[in-house]
Hints:
Layout: H1 3-25, H2 27-42, E1 47-51, H3 56-62, E2 72-75, H4 86-93, H5 98-106, E3 113-117, H6 124-135, E4 140-144, H7 146-151, H8 160-163, E5 166-169, H9 190-212, H10 227-238
Parallel strand pairs: 1-2, 1-3, 3-4, 4-5
Helix pairs in contact: 1-9, 2-9, 3-9, 5-6
Amino acid sequence: MTTDTVTGSDYGNLVRTHLTRVEQQNAAALDDVAELVLAAVQADGTILTAGAGHSLAAVAETFYRAGGLACVRPIYHPELLPMHGAISSTSAERRSGLAGEVLREAGLAPHDVLFVFSTSGVNYYPVELAQEAANAGCPVVAVTSVASSAQAPRRAGVTLAEVATVVLDNLVPPGDSTYPEDAPVTAAISTVATAFLWNLLMVRLVDKAAETGVQLPLWRSANVEGGDAANADLLRHYQTRIPQLG
């Protein structure tokens, strides 16, 4: 067996172990979040999803995705995208006030749900998103790492987890890297763990909707026969409130 095969196997086992822990430790919270989202769907509300930096990968996972919720509105600002400027994106999420600007443009209602993805959960942008939404009476789901927040500088004074309605913990270690296990320098796990949490939520939603007779607005892939036709009604219904669908 080659060295590469051994290290690949070790890393695969590390990821599988991590995801098992994530699933087990978030079981009760996922049920609570599924109830919040199901209530929002029943009220014809919107699920808003937000993040900054690499947490925007999680936002992309929630939006216009085959099998995903059609009522998701992604919340972001060009300054927060690393591809528009890596250093400036870091500065933007540490700046107070940007969250308020972004949410005012998006609009919030008590029957909506805001998801804030931030593994560190300490910068102004994610924390102020949660605070603004809470002040508007909108439930906030934090998808974060409690362990990472505990060791990161509290730039906003409090952590995202401390101001959220429900916390989903991706259990990402401080620094995000996971390999080699004894002194990690690579293989960030936050994107994998967060996407896994989101899809665990989707599975619960489908099951709960089936039990209660709720029709979930789910996208079909645009690259399968009949996909465009199946999505047409959803586009007509949500396009006026979700401009990113245009």
